[in-house]
Amino acid sequence: VIRYTETDFADAARSLLRADRPFDVIYDSVGKTTFHAGLGLLKPRGLMALFGQSSGKVEPVDLNILNQHGSLYVTRPSLFHYAATRADLERRAGDVLRWIAAGELDVLIGDTFPLDRAADAHRALEGRKTTGKVLLLP
């Protein structure tokens, strides 16, 4: 674990993996704080999958930077595009539930809140005080 808020995560990753550009793919849920440094960690033709923005939105990017770093790819996926139809949602949810039932996917439940404390759950999520899944219990 590298805590990007306490250390330069790019330098730490390079040191730990003994490579200047060690990654084929980076899944970035942080956004503004880590995006540009992450691009510098990708191998040529690497992929940056930006799926969150807990530190804020990434500012507009001059696409030439992708060329300068080695013909990189960037995607900003959204669940809504992968579960656009009921059939998509049922197929994907079915896969996940089968993996959980088979013990192939471990789900970390980090916290639970009674339904009448849903606002507290949202504050915990927004305040980045959660790890794993947060459940609301009726």
How far apart the termini lie comes to 34 Å
Total DSSP helices: 6
**Looking across the biggest beta sheet, what order are the strands in?**
1-2-3
Helices and strands, in N-to-C order? HEHEHEHHEHE
Helix fraction bin: 25-40%
What's the pLDDT, averaged over the residues? 95
| Overall geometry | globular
Q: Determine Rg (CA atoms, Å).
A: 18 Å
Q: Label the structural class.
A: alpha/beta
The residue ranges in which pLDDT falls below 50 over 5 or more consecutive positions are none
Give the helices and strands, then pairings.
Layout lengths: L8 H9 L5 E6 L6 H5 L2 E9 L13 H5 L4 E3 L3 H4 L3 H16 L7 E6 L3 H9 L6 E5 L1
Parallel strand pairs: 1-2, 2-3, 4-5
Word description of this protein:
With 138 residues, the protein is an alpha/beta fold. 35% of the residues lie in helices and 21% in strands. It has helices at 9-17, 35-39, 64-68, 79-82, 86-101, 118-126, and strands at 23-28, 42-50, 73-75, 109-114, 133-137. Strand 1 (23-28), helix 2 (35-39) and strand 2 form a beta-alpha-beta unit. It is globular and about 50 Å long. The model has no long low-confidence stretch (mean pLDDT 95).
